[in-house]
UniProtKB/TrEMBL annotation:
<dbReference type="InterPro" id="IPR045357">
    <property type="entry name" value="Aminopeptidase_N-like_N"/>
</dbReference>
<keyword id="KW-0378">Hydrolase</keyword>
<keyword id="KW-0031">Aminopeptidase</keyword>
<dbReference type="Pfam" id="PF17432">
    <property type="entry name" value="DUF3458_C"/>
</dbReference>
<keyword id="KW-0482">Metalloprotease</keyword>
<protein>
    <recommendedName>
        <fullName>Aminopeptidase N</fullName>
        <ecNumber>3.4.11.2</ecNumber>
    </recommendedName>
</protein>
<dbReference type="InterPro" id="IPR037144">
    <property type="entry name" value="Peptidase_M1_pepN_C_sf"/>
</dbReference>
<dbReference type="GO" id="GO:0016285">
    <property type="term" value="F:alanyl aminopeptidase activity"/>
</dbReference>
<dbReference type="InterPro" id="IPR027268">
    <property type="entry name" value="Peptidase_M4/M1_CTD_sf"/>
</dbReference>
<dbReference type="Pfam" id="PF11940">
    <property type="entry name" value="DUF3458"/>
</dbReference>
<dbReference type="InterPro" id="IPR001930">
    <property type="entry name" value="Peptidase_M1"/>
</dbReference>
<comment type="similarity">
    <text>Belongs to the peptidase M1 family.</text>
</comment>
<dbReference type="InterPro" id="IPR035414">
    <property type="entry name" value="Peptidase_M1_pepN_Ig-like"/>
</dbReference>
<feature type="domain" description="Peptidase M1 alanyl aminopeptidase C-terminal">
    <location>
        <begin position="560"/>
        <end position="890"/>
    </location>
</feature>
<keyword id="KW-0862">Zinc</keyword>
<keyword id="KW-0479">Metal-binding</keyword>
<dbReference type="Pfam" id="PF17900">
    <property type="entry name" value="Peptidase_M1_N"/>
</dbReference>
Length: 890
C-alpha cells in the first residue's frame, strides 16, 4: 500500500457526462450494465483511460458499440485505444458482482434480504468500473430489475420516471437524477420496505414528498425521524435560504451499516440506530442523535452534494461545515440559552474526549490532511468535529449575519462544482472584507494545515494603584507526526471579567473611548500578546474562552476561590460548567499522582462538595445543566491530562470520587430524584430530557451510596423503576444504576430486560453495551465480554452489534480494558485480526483503541506494544488496519 499525497492532485483526464446503469439484482450474482458517455479533458495531456474497479467480474467492454482492447493494471481497467479528439464517445461495461458475499458493506451488499449500497468514499468501484473520484460529476439514469415478490420496492437517486412488470415475476423501476453528482453519492435500495410519507410545501411554494423507508414492523418508530426531516428542511430555508431541490427526498434504514448515515442524493441511507425511535425502545440521547444525524445528512444536500469536494483531502469542506450546521440546527431547535449551552457543552465534551487525544496521538492529522493510505481511516473526529470548530471560529470572526452572507457567496461561486477548503474560506472572507477573517485569512488557514491542539497559556496581573489589569496570552502547539514546528494560530478568545462577588466588570482597553460590558472577542495572532484593561476597580476573575470560542487547551492557574466564583456567577454557562470541571479535575489529578490509600484519604474536600450541593439545590438552574456539572470528567479525559497514564489508578480515583459525591450529597440526590422522577407524558424535548437525565444520575448515585452503606432501599427502588418505567430513558437509567453500582439486582434486571426486548435489535445493542462498558469490579468485565460473544444474539458481522460489545469494552471502558495481566490487549488484538477479515473499516476503528499506548505506565505500555506488534506482524492485513498499526508503532 502506498500513500496518496494531496500535492499530487491532477484533474481527471476524462469527464463522464452521463451514466446509464441497468442492474439485474440477484444476491449471488448481480449483473451491472454501465453505459457512459465520456470525453477527453482538453486541459490535460492525452492519456489512457484508467477506470477503478474492485472485486468485479468483467464480462464485456464496448466503445461506441464495438469490442475494444483493454488491459488490467492492478485494480484498474486501462483503455488505450480510445477515439482521439474532443468528441464524446460511448463506453459500455458489463460486470457482475456478489452482494451476498460483501461483508465489507462497501459497494452493493445484502442486509436482511434487501439490497443496499454504500459508495463513500470509494465504494462505487465495487459496483462498476468508473472514475471513482469526487471531481467527476455525471448525470445518472438507473434501471433496477429484480424479483417482484422478494424486492417489491426499488429505489435510486432522483425521480421515478417509469416502472412496470417483466417476465418471470420480475419488475423494474427507472430513476433519473436531475442533478449531476459524483459517484460517491450514488445509491440504490431494493427490498421489502414500507414508508412513512409526508407531503410538504416549502416557503417558496414548491411541493415535496418526504419518505422514511423501514422494514415492515418498524413503521411505528419513524415519526421522530420524519419530524426531524421536516424541521431540517424548514431550518435550512430559514437560516441559510437553502431550499430542498428535489421533488422527492427519501431516507432508508438498514441495520447493517458501517457508519451513522450517508447523504446520497435524494436517497439517504441510514443506520437504523439513527432512524428508529419510539419512547418504549429509544432513549432521549437516541432521539437527540436522530435529530442531529437526520439534519446532518439533509444539510449535506447543499454542503457536500450541490458543492462537493475536489478530492478526499478536502473532506472537511463538507464534513466540518455540515457538522457545524447540524450543531447550529440542534441549538436553534433547543431554544433557550440554557438548552443551547447544554448542547454546546456536550459537543465540546466529544471534542475533548475524542479529538484532542487523536490530535496528540499517532494518527494526528490536519483538518486537511496532506497524505493518507486508506481514506476510510480519515473519517475522523478531526475532520468532523475539529473541522466544525474551524467553521465556528469563522462565524465568530465575521458574525452570524456575515457568515450567512459568506455562505451565499460560496453557493453563488461554486454551485455544481467540486472545490477545496480554500474556496470555502475565501468565500466567507470575501463576503466580509472588513472582518478579522479577511485580514488574517492566510494565517487563519493554518487551522487547516497544522495538526495538534494548541495550548493557550494565560496569566493575569492586577495593579490596584493604576487600576489596570494585564492579561498575558501565549500560544504553543506540540509537535505532531511530520510537523515538528508550528506557526501561531489565529485564536478568537471570548473574554469577560468578573469581580470577586461575581458581578461583571466593564471591559476597556487603554485605546478604547469607553468601556464595554459582557463578552468581547479578542483575536490572538502572535505567539504572545498582552491585553491591558484600564479603569478596573478590583482584582478580576477572568472568564476566558467563553462558549469555548476556540478548540484549544486553556492553561490558567485558577485558584479554587476564582473557580467557585465562576461556577456560581459567570454569565456564560459554558464557563460555569468548565469551572466545576476544573475543580473536580484538580482534585482528581492530585489524587492520581499521589499514592494515598483512597479508602483512607478522601479525594474531594468540603469546598468542592458544598459547591456541588449548591448547584444541585439551585432552583434557577436547569436539570440538564446540573447533570452536566455533577458528572465527573471521564477517565479518558483525565488520562489526557497526564504524561504517564496508570489507567487503574485513574479508574480507582474516579470511582472513589463518584462514591464520595454519592454519599456526601445523599440528601440532595434524593431531592433531585423526587423533583425530577416524573416528567409526565413522554416528550424528548430538552427540558424534560434534562430532568430525566438528572433523575437518572441521582438514582445511580443513590445506588452507589447504598453499596457503601449496605442499604437495600434504593436498589429496590431502582429495580421497581426498571420494571415500571413508561419510557426507555427511565428504564435504561434504572438498569444502569443497578449495573454501575454493581448491585446483585443487576443480574435479574438484565435478564428481564433481554426477555422484554429480544426482538428489538437496537435495544439488545444497549443491553450488550451496558455490560461491556460496566465499571470493573475485580476484573469481572473481560470474562463477561467473552461470555457475551458466545451469546446467540451476538454477531460479529453486524457492525452495531460488534461495536456494542467489543468497542464498548476496548474503546469505552479503560478501567476494565487496561488489565495488568494484559488480557484486555490480547482480546483486542484477536478481535482486530478477526474483524479485519470481515470488515476492514470496522477493524481499523477498533485498532485505534490503543492509539495512546505510548503514554501508558508499565506494565501496560510494553504489553500494549506487544499486542500492536502482533497485529502488525500479520501478513495479510487490510490497508485500513495496516495504516493504523504502522503509525501507532512509528
Ligand atoms: N458522509 C457521511 C456523513 O458524514 C459519512 N460517510 O454524513
Ligand atoms: Zn457528513
Amino acid at each position: 500500500a502506498t500513500a496518496i499525497h494531496r500535492a499530487d492532485y491532477t484533474a481527471p483526464a476524462y469527464w463522464i457526462d452521463t451514466v446509464e446503469l441497468v442492474f439485474d439484482l440477484d444476491p449471488a450474482k448481480t449483473r451491472v450494465l454501465n453505459k457512459m458517455r465520456l470525453r477527453r479533458n482538453g486541459d490535460v495531456a492525452p492519456q489512457a483511460l484508467r477506470l477503478d474497479g474492485e472485486e468485479l467480474n468483467l464480462a464485456r467492454v464496448l466503445v461506441n458499440g464495438q469490442g475494444t482492447s483493454f488491459k488490467m493494471d492492478g485494480n484498474q481497467l486501462v483503455l488505450e485505444n480510445l477515439p482521439e479528439g474532443p468528441d464524446a464517445f460511448d463506453l459500455e461495461i458489463f460486470t457482475t458482482c456478489n452482494p451476498a458475499k460483501n461483508t465489507k458493506l462497501m459497494g452493493l451488499y445484502v442486509s436482511n434480504d434487501s439490497f443496499f449500497t454504500q459508495c463513500e468514499a470509494e465504494g462505487f468501484r465495487r459496483i462498476t468500473y468508473f472514475l471513482d473520484r469526487p471531481d467527476v460529476m455525471a448525470s445518472y439514469t438507473v434501471t433496477l430489475r429484480a424479483d417482484k415478490a422478494k424486492y417489491p420496492v426499488l429505489l435510486s437517486n432522483g425521480n421515478l420516471v417509469e416502472e412496470g412488470e417483466l417476465e418471470d415475476g420480475r419488475h423494474f423501476a427507472k430513476w433519473v437524477d436531475p442533478h449531476k453528482k459524483p459517484c460517491y453519492l450514488f445509491a440504490l435500495v431494493a427490498g421489502q420496505l414500507v414508508a412513512r410519507e409526508q407531503r410538504i410545501r416549502s416557503r417558496a411554494g414548491k411541493d415535496h414528498l418526504l419518505q422514511v423507508f423501514v422494514r415492515p414492523g418498524d413503521l411505528d418508530k419513524t415519526e421522530h425521524a420524519m419530524n426531524s426531516l421536516m424541521a431540517s428542511v424548514a431550518w435550512d430555508e430559514a437560516r441559510f435560504g437553502l431550499p430542498l431541490d428535489l421533488e422527492r427526498f427519501m431516507i432508508v434504514a438498514t441495520s447493517d451499516f458501517n457508519m451513522g448515515a450517508m447523504e446520497n442524493k435524494g436517497l439517504n441511507i441510514f443506520n437504523t440506530k439513527y432512524v428508529l425511535a419510539n419512547q418504549a425502545t429509544a432513549t432521549d440521547a437516541d432521539f437527540s442523535n436522530i435529530e442531529s444525524v437526520v439534519g446532518h445528512e439533509y444539510f449535506h444536500n447543499w454542503t457536500g452534494n450541490r458543492v462537493t469536494c475536489q478530492d478526499w483531502f478536502q473532506l472537511s469542506l463538507k464534513e466540518g461545515l455540515t457538522v457545524f450546521r447540524d450543531q447550529e440546527f440542534s441549538q436553534d431547535l433547543a431554544g433557550s440559552p440554557s438548552a443551547r449551552a447544554v448542547k454546546r457543552i456536550e459537543d465540546v465534551r466529544v471534542l475533548r474526549t475524542a479529538q484532542f487525544p487523536e490530535d496528540a496521538g499517532p494518527m494526528a492529522h490536519p483538518v486537511r490532511p496532506d497524505s493518507y493510505i486508506e481514506i476510510n481511516n480519515f473519517y475522523t473526529v478531526t475532520i468532523y468535529e475539529k473541522g466544525a470548530e474551524v467553521v465556528r471560529m469563522m462565524q465568530t470572526l465575521v458574525g452570524r449575519d456575515g457568515f450567512a452572507q459568506g455562505m451565499k457567496l460560496y453557493f453563488e461561486r461554486h454551485d455544481g462544482q467540486a472545490v477545496t477548503c480554500d474556496d470555502f474560506a475565501q468565500a466567507i472572507a470575501d463576503a466580509n472584507p472588513q472582518s478579522d477573517l479577511a485580514r488574517l485569512l492566510p494565517q487563519f488557514k493554518r487551522w487547516y494545515s497544522q495538526a495538534g491542539t494548541p495550548r493557550l497559556h494565560a496569566s493575569g496581573q492586577y495593579d490596584a494603584a493604576a487600576r489596570t489589569y494585564t492579561l498575558s496570552l501565549t500560544q504553543s502547539c506540540a509537535p505532531t507526526p511530520g510537523q515538528a514546528l508550528k506557526d501561531p494560530f489565529v485564536i478568537p478568545v471570548n473574554l469577560g471579567l468578573l469581580d470577586a462577588q461575581g458581578q461583571a466588570l466593564p471591559l476597556q482597553l487603554a485605546h478604547w473611548a469607553q468601556a464595554e460590558t459582557g463578552t468581547r472577542t479578542f483575536v490572538l495572532t502572535e505567539a504572545s500578546e498582552t491585553l491591558t484593561f484600564v479603569n478596573v476597580d478590583s482584582a478580576p476573575v477572568p472568564s476566558i474562552l467563553r462558549d469555548f470560542s476556540a478548540p484549544v487547551v486553556l492553561d490558567y492557574a485558577y485558584t479554587d476561590t476564582e473557580l467557585l466564583t465562576l461556577l456560581a456567577h459567570d454569565s456564560d454557562p459554558f464557563n460555569r460548567w468548565e469551572a466545576g470541571q476544573r475543580l473536580a479535575l484538580a482534585r482528581a489529578l492530585k489524587a492520581i499522582q499521589g499514592d494515598s490509600d483512597l479508602a483512607q484519604t478522601p479525594v474531594l474536600d468540603d469546598a468542592y462538595l458544598d459547591a456541588m450541593r449548591q448547584v444541585l439545590a439551585d432552583p434557577t438552574l436547569d436539570a440538564a445543566f446540573k447533570e452536566l456539572v455533577l458528572t465527573l470528567p471521564s477517565e479518558t479525559y483525565l488520562a489526557e491530562q497526564l504524561d504517564v497514564v496508570d489507567p487503574q489508578r485513574i479508574h480507582a480515583v474516579r470511582e472513589a470520587m463518584r462514591e464520595q459525591l454519592a454519599t456526601a450529597l445523599q440528601t440532595q440526590w434524593q431531592q433531585a430524584w423526587e423533583d425530577n422522577r416524573d416528567t409526565g407524558g413522554y416528550r424528548p424535548d430538552p427540558v424534560s430530557s434534562g430532568r430525566r437525565a438528572l433523575a437518572g444520575l441521582a438514582l445511580t448515585q443513590l445506588c452507589v451510596a447504598a453499596r457503601r452503606s449496605g442499604d437495600t432501599v434504593w436498589p429496590g427502588k431502582a429495580f421497581q423503576r426498571f420494571k415500571d418505567a413508561a419510557n426507555m430513558t427511565d428504564r435504561f437509567n434504572a438498569l444502569s444504576a443497578l449495573v454501575i453500582s454493581g448491585h446483585e439486582l443487576a443480574a435479574p434486571a438484565l435478564s428481564r430486560f433481554h426477555a422484554l426486548f429480544k426482538n428489538e435489535a437496537l435495544v439488545i445493542d444497549k443491553w450488550f453495551s451496558l455490560q461491556a462498558g460496566a465499571p470493573d469490579h475485580g476484573g469481572h468485565v473481560l470474562p463477561a465480554v467473552r461470555q457475551l460473544m458466545t451469546h446467540p444474539d451476538f454477531n460479529l458481522r453486524n457492525p452495531n452489534r460488534a461495536r456494542s460489545v467489543i468497542f464498548s469494552y476496548c474503546s469505552a471502558n479503560p478501567g476494565a480494558f487496561h488489565r495488568s495481566d494484559a488480557a484486555g490487549y490480547v482480546f483486542w488484538a484477536d478481535r482486530v485480526i478477526e474483524l479485519d477479515a470481515i470488515n476492514p473499516q470496522v477493524a481499523a476503528r477498533l485498532a485505534r483503541a490503543l492509539d495512546r499506548w505510548k503514554k501508558l505506565a508499565e506494565p501496560y505500555r510494553s504489553a500494549a506494544r506487544e499486542a500492536i506488534a502482533r497485529v502488525a506482524a500479520k501478513a495479510d492485513l487490510s490497508n485500513d488496519v495496516r495504516e493504523v498499526v504502522t503509525r501507532a508503532l512509528a
